[in-house]
Specification:
Elements (H helix, E strand, L loop, with lengths): L22 H12 L1 H22 L18 E2 L5 E2 L10 H37 L1 H15 L3 H12 L3 H10 L2 H15 L3 H8 L4 H9 L4 H24 L11 H7 L10 H28 L8
Antiparallel strand pairs: 1-2
Helix pairs in contact: 2-3, 2-12, 3-4, 3-6, 3-7, 3-10, 4-7, 5-6, 8-9, 10-11, 10-12, 11-12
């Protein structure tokens, strides 16, 4: 009895391939479609360029005084053909140069304060949400106590004790932001710690630190990014407010808030440029961060993501 074997013909299985658009390309298309986030990014890039290249872009020393040319209007011409593009202040200092140097302080304080407050808040929120129990109670009650006091009052009290200074204001503003991050991270951790992939990580023998920082933390980066973009704007406003009160960085360091404080006595004399330009710089920077935060919230929300 013979058995005929049918030759096996290899069958090619057609696989449906899909070329996924890179994340940055999808973000660019979304930003161009929304228009306003693109404008916000352009403004923030200009502020960043001013902050980084301020010493090279500034035409004059921001602290150089010239009493003869004090309160000169915009486009006023000084000696040797120097032009004061945005005028001079009450001490004859170039407003344009001080505006460029002030961008560095505002961005540095905003970003560094968010890093300090975000680090403290994220660690506290992860530990509180993962372990629960008395640790959760202690962390949340500390946050409730801090929220019970007006933040600007606490900042003033700390700076009166510590004294004005760039490092002090970064620490004070950073500590004031940790509660927001801790509450958000705690809520996310409570919902994620019972997920299947977290249970699988524990079953595979991962340590507690590995589960917290390598399994849970990457899954809450998106909301943290959105919160940080909004908080940078609020920190810049807080720094400007403290500088306006004379409790920010030293007087020798130009900031947008101190420029507004210096313009108080000149507004009645119709010296509008002293308050207009630093005020517009604060408004545009804060508004740009808020617009970018709104766009990030929509872009990172998986329910609003569309393909194509």
């Amino acid at each position: 009895m013979t058995v005929e074997l049918t030759p096996v013909v290899p069958v090619k299985i057609a696989r449906k391939t899909r070329t996924a658009s890179p994340q940055w390309r999808r973000a660019w298309r979304s930003m161009v479609r929304a228009k306003w986030p693109l404008v916000a990014v352009i403004i923030l890039l200009l502020v960043a360029v001013a902050a980084i290249l301020g010493p090279w872009l500034a035409p004059l020393d921001p602290n150089r005084q010239n009493i003869v040319l004090r309160l000169a209007p915009p486009l006023a011409e000084g000696r040797r053909g120097a032009i004061f593009w945005l005028g001079t202040d009450g001490l004859g200092r170039d407003v344009f140069s001080r505006l460029l140097y002030g961008a560095r302080v505002s961005l540095l304080v905003g970003i560094c304060s968010i890093l300090v407050g975000g680090t403290i808040g994220v660690v506290a929120g992860l530990v509180s949400g993962y372990f629960g129990g008395w640790i959760d109670d202690v962390v949340m009650r500390l946050g409730d106590i801090q929220l019970a006091f007006p933040f600007i009052l606490l900042a003033v009290l700390f700076l009166v004790v510590l004294g004005p200074g760039l490092l002090n204001i970064i620490i004070v503003l950073g500590i004031g932001q940790w509660v927001t991050y801790a509450r958000i991270v705690r809520g996310q951790t409570l919902s994620l710690r019972e997920k299947e992939y977290v249970e699988a990580a524990r079953a595979l023998g991962d340590s507690t630190i590995s589960v917290i920082f390598r399994t849970i933390l990457p899954n809450i980066i998106a909301p943290l990014t959105v919160i940080a973009s909004f908080n940078v704007a609020s920190v810049i406003l807080s720094e400007a407010s403290l500088s306006f009160l004379g409790l920010g960085v030293p007087v020798s360091v130009p900031t947008w808030g101190s420029m507004l404080a210096d313009s108080r006595d000149q507004l009645m004399a119709n010296k509008w440029w002293l308050a207009l330009f630093p005020g517009m710089a604060i408004v545009l920077t804060v508004l740009s961060f808020n617009i970018l935060g709104d766009w990030l919230r929509d872009f990172l929300d998986p329910r609003l993501k569309t393909t194509g």
